[in-house]
Specification:
With about 475 residues, the protein is α/β, with parallel strands linked by helices. About 30% of the residues lie in helices and about 25% in strands. The protein has 13 helices and 24 strands. The strands form 4 sheets. Strands 12-11-13-14-23-22-21-18-19-24 form a 10-stranded mixed beta sheet, sandwiched between helices. Strands 1, 2, 3, 4, 5, 6, 7 and 10 form an 8-stranded mixed beta sheet that branches.
Length: about 475
């Protein structure tokens, strides 16, 4: 248990743009702070699943998503304070550029908005490759763009050497003397993380072993002034508010929900799983990639997103898993699936190479991988009819990103659309949320923190099915 009498620290790691090195710096600081013996709690602004997984491996504490569009200010503040109550340091990795949000007119959905909501200072990461004195103009603009935003300092990334770093510091001292330079990460540091479509390789695939973490911590300790960072990021929090919870209504009967979780099914918001448990569910995790099937006596299933296309051959050969899905659906057991889960419930997955792997065949269509991004962005699901997550008119916010598309949709009269989807900047809707009997599947990753009653509704449906059975 953390000694809450010790000084707490909290700060936002932000960048000038996507790809400037926020994640590398964040992981390095997590490793260095942990090596110093601090209980550090990571957070990620935005709907991303991959960065939080990497945070969690290094920090040893489950990283949590913060989001100004999917979730209200109250949810974000309560979540942050609850986890900061038992941590000594809170590191929040931002999203995109510091001021980038849902539109060009406001700060809504941006990292800057989140920093001000939570009352933490920002640490600006600047990609200094091929930059000299011009870096001062860039930093000056960011520092003065929003007078209400506090800065703890600047970290330069991809610095070519000591001479280059000295030049950058001189530029800031002459043009932005109030700005503190916390150090510079060298360009060739040997700790880059491999990437693929949709971002970095997931934590489930790439285990960040202790040797790698130690190298990362040593790199940061050598090149950044962590003592100065901690000195400038002291945090005081309203302890009285830290225990507030957003709980879903509790089901009267137990629900045993099977959750697929491995490298193919790894995209889950921790809040969603927590809300299921708060509503009375007992979660049973299993790995289809390891040959496992639905646990016996489960009364519901949750298939999250991930990368099933990379493991389509393995999944297609797990007949026990696919047979159990088909049998459970035929018996009316509630099954909820998102993105990769939707692909698994379809007739087949067609890989980029054109190979088709058979799947469960519960949904009357297949999915085909594309070499380009199909859909990316926030979306809002308005329920059209009664379904596993609620009744007509219920609004749940989420995020959609995938490289696959639905193909060869059959004329199955049992298929219904449960959602009207609305983009974050338009009222134009399209029908989605594929419903067949007790199965609900969608490409959208919904965050139930935007409508906690959805988790309670799903648990009740599972419990009622178990009681009928």
């Amino acid at each position: 248990m953390t000694d809450n009498s010790r000084q707490k620290h909290a700060f936002l790691i932000c960048g000038t743009h996507s790809g400037c090195g926020k994640t590398t710096v964040s992981l390095g600081l997590l490793a260095a702070l942990k090596a110093r013996g601090l209980d550090v709690q990571p957070f990620k602004v935005g709907p991303d699943f991959i960065d939080p997984g990497l945070h969690t491996q290094i920090a040893g504490s489950q990283s949590r998503n913060l989001d100004g569009w999917m979730l209200g200010r109250g949810w974000n503040e309560t979540l942050f304070r609850r986890f900061m109550a038992r941590a000594e340091a809170g590191l929040i990795e931002g999203v995109m550029g510091l001021f980038d949000g849902i539109d060009g007119l406001s700060e809504s959905g941006s990292s800057a908005e989140m920093a001000k909501w939570l009352g933490v200072p920002a640490v600006l990461v600047v990609d200094a490759k091929s930059m000299a004195r011009s870096v001062a103009a860039l930093v000056y603009g960011f520092i003065h763009f929003d007078p209400q935003l506090r800065f703890a300092g600047v970290i330069f990334n991809r610095v070519s050497g000591e001479k280059h770093l000295r030049y950058l510091k001189e530029a800031l001292s002459s043009s932005c003397p109030e700005t503190v330079v916390l150090g510079g990460i060298p360009k060739e540091n040997g700790v880059q993380i491999p990437e693929r479509h949709l971002g970095l390789v997931t934590a489930d695939e790439m285990k960040l072993d202790s040797t790698w973490q130690n190298q990362l911590a040593e790199l940061v300790e050598k090149h950044l002034d962590i003592d100065l960072l901690l000195e400038r990021t002291g945090y005081s929090m309203p302890i009285a508010d830290s225990s507030a919870r957003h709980a879903a209504s509790v089901s009267e009967h137990p629900a045993e929900i099977a959750v697929a979780r491995d490298a193919a099914y790894c995209f889950y918001y921790p809040d969603n799983l927590e809300l299921l448990e708060q509503a009375g569910a007992r979660l049973h995790f299993f790995s289809p990639l390891n040959g496992e099937s639905l646990p016996e006596k489960c009364s519901g299933a949750y298939l999250g997103g991930g990368y099933p296309e990379l493991f389509a051959d393995v999944i297609s050969r797990n007949c026990a898993f696919l047979d159990a899905l088909r049998a459970s659906a035929a018996q009316g057991m509630p099954i909820y699936a998102e993105c990769g889960g939707l692909m698994t419930l379809g007739r087949f997955i067609e890989t980029v190479e054109g190979q088709r792997r058979p799947m469960a065949g519960i949904l009357p269509f297949g999915t085909r991988m594309l070499s380009r991004l199909k859909t990316l962005g926030y979306t809002e699901a308005v329920l059209r009819r009664e379904c596993l997550l609620g009744g007509p008119g219920t609004v749940i916010r989420g995020h959609e990103f995938h490289y696959s598309e639905i193909v060869e949709q059959g004329l199955d009269s049992s298929l219904e659309f449960a959602y009207d989807l609305r983009g974050r900047r338009t009222e134009v809707s399209r029908q989605e949320g594929y419903q067949v009997g007790s199965v609900l599947a969608s490409y959208v990753h919904l965050h139930w923190g935007s409508a906690p009653e959805a988790a309670g509704r799903f648990v009740r449906q599972c419990a009622e099915w178990a009681k009928r059975r």
